[in-house]
Every structure is written in structure tokens, then in C-alpha cells.
Design goal:
Layout lengths: L7 E11 L2 E11 L3 E13 L4 E14 L3 E5 L2 E10 L2 E8 L17 E9 L4 E10 L5 E10 L3 E7 L6 E9 L2 E10 L3 E5 L1
Antiparallel strand pairs: 1-2, 2-3, 3-4, 4-5, 4-6, 6-7, 7-8, 8-9, 9-10, 10-11, 11-12, 12-13, 13-14
Length: 196
Amino acid sequence: SLIPGGNNYFSFLCAFRVSPGNINFQLDYSGADDYHEMQTGIGYSRNLGELLQIGVRFNYYRLRIAGYGAASAFPVEIAAVFQLFPKLRTSLYVYNLMSAGPKGEWLSKIPTVVRFGIGYSASESVGLSLEIIKESGKSVSFQPIIFYQAAGKLFFRGGFATTTGLVFFSGGYLLGQLRLDLSTSYMGTLGWTTGL
């Protein structure tokens, strides 16, 4: 979002195929006048046969708050996807497993986040999934999602998160290896947020 005088958020991700696997780069930034938070990372993923995919990403995290200074940390992400049956798969994702966090009494710790997901392909066009999310210090959240892909190019998805009341929708178009995605979400007092 680009809100004058408000909080700005940017995210960039790119991935490249290598043999054997994929390398990805990600950059996330959010900030306002006196607060800046940034994370960048490099990851690697690959298939281990037809039934298992694994991935890992090493991140550099930096936080700066005016009047307090800046601090950094190196959180790690790991993930695995298991193909249980032809139409059913599960996934497990862990962020900051080793509880890395910036040092300083004024800094809050970077949370450890565990996500478990299960997805079912009802047809070639329709998919259903449920994600269970546990963040350290917070209640468990359930996030059901429905996905629809039309004619192999257009796709739509929507869902909600139980703990925050977040409702989200997105749609997009596939252009060969490129995917254009437009999303919007709504959450209580924060209102609407859009993204491209």
C-alpha cells in the first residue's frame, strides 16, 4: 500500500529453476515515518520423489524505530509438502524455529510460527484447503480457503481467518511463467487493504 503519512508495505518475490530444484529471493518491507521493518531472504526447494517436496529459506531481519535505534536477526524458515493421495496433500511450515530475535529490552521477540495445511482437489478447477496456524503467544487460528481456476488461465480464491476476522479474496491471470494477482482483504478496524 502507498498511503501518504501512513504505513507502507512492499513485497517482492522471484524464483528460478536450477538443477535439481528451485532458488528463490524475497524482500518484504513495511514502515512509516518513525518505524521501519525489513526482511530479505534466499531459499532453496526441491522435490524428493513424487510424494515429498521440501524447502528452506535463510532470512535477514532488521527493525529500526526512531529514538530507540536499530537491531537485526537471522530467522530461518523450513517447509515440507506431502502428497498423501492423488487429490489430497498436507503441508508443514515453521518460521523462526530457533527463536532468533533482535537484542534489546525495547524489542519484542520475533514469533515462532507453525502452519499445518491440508488441501483437497475436488476437480481440475476447484480446490479446498484448511490451514491451522499457531504463533507463539497467540491463539490457534483456522483459515479455510476455496480456489477456482477457469480455462487454465484465470484463477480466484477466497477465505477467512478465525482469530482476526480477516476476510480475503483474490484473482489473477497466468501469462506463461508469470502470474498477475490482485487481492483485497478486510479486517475489523483496519478496513480494506488491496495488493497487486
